[in-house]
Amino acid sequence: MNQENKSRVAEFVLLGLSSSYELQYFFFMLFNFLYIIIVLGNLLIVLTVISEPALHTPMYIMLSNLSILDVFLATYATPKMIHDFLHEPKTISFEGCMAQIFLLHVFAGGEMVLLVAMAYDRYVAICKPLHYATIMNLCKCTGLVVGSWVIGVMHSLSQLAFTVNLPFCGPNVVNSYYCDLTLVIKLACTDTYVPEVLMLLDSGLMGVASFLLLLVSYTVILVTVQRRSSTDMTKAHSTLTAHIIVVTLFFGPCIFIYAWPFSNFPVDKVLSVFSTVFTPILNPIIYTLRNKEVKLAMHKLKTRYMKNYQINAVLTSGTFLSVSFFSFYSN
């Protein structure tokens, strides 16, 4: 055991997105800008929901938690990737690599469950509007949100349990910009057939189950609304379109990557970037630009901020003039 611990690799080398210096400098500027947009856009949604009492409903509480997960999902690897664009060698410690794997599956798993919970909320709101307040009360909403985080943590721990103890004693080059579990497992100095199957079953079961639940909920909503007026159908289509876009953007790359989990394709890097960078940007755009209540709340927040800013500016100017006045006469 001591000999195995001594031979364990201390760090992994990340190949990144490109070896071209010009492209790396371009990517540095691009992803810096995108990361700032992700953080500011999603935090704006969280602040808007918190500051506006009219948005203290299950739908918007879940939306704010989705924004929090998106910030974390973009943060677990993106800052490291941005740093590595201008630094050589691109390395990450063994502990840092395991931490990336853990955080990725916590946030991705939690977002899968939360999207299912949001679909359930829309099902109740559209199909059972008269009972919505009773079924989707604050207690149940809190349980669904907390449950998404708990399931995400449990899912990640189950993935990490059979990875962290594998013997990594030789190859340490990861052909990605972060520690992807499917790539890291292949570097172990042992037969990884069983861990690979366990990982595939764990992630595959969670992903497929979540995706099927979403499809069932959307199908039930559409079938139910078709029996109602055209106005209800238009509203349902508008709501479902936003949800389907988010689900497609989130599950699409995951399904492709895990369809061939232990074969590395060049397109995998693009899909990984898309799911960890572009999806967290598109989520707030899709949910806010299509939602009048959120836009109205943001307008109120802006007006309130500008009013407070003007009041503070007047008070500051008044204080400055008072101090100047008394200073003048005291002399």
Describe the protein in words.
There is one protein chain. With 331 residues, the chain is mostly helical. The protein has a single domain (11-305), classed as Up-down Bundle (Rhopdopsin 7-helix transmembrane proteins), CATH 1.20.1070. The chain contains 12 helices and 3 strands; from the N terminus they run αβαααβαααβααααα. It has a 3-stranded mixed sheet. Helix 5 runs antiparallel to helix 10 (230-259). The N and C termini lie far apart (81 Å).
Give a short overview.
The chain is 77% helix and 3% strand. It is built from twelve helices and three strands; from the N terminus they run H-E-H-H-H-E-H-H-H-E-H-H-H-H-H.
Please outline the helices and strands.
Elements: H1 2-7, E1 11-14, H2 21-51, H3 58-75, H4 78-85, E2 91-93, H5 94-127, H6 132-135, H7 138-161, E3 173-174, H8 181-185, H9 193-225, H10 230-259, H11 266-289, H12 292-330
Parallel strand pairs: 1-3
Antiparallel strand pairs: 1-2
Helix pairs in contact: 2-3, 2-4, 2-11, 2-12, 3-5, 3-7, 3-11, 5-7, 5-9, 5-10, 9-10, 10-11
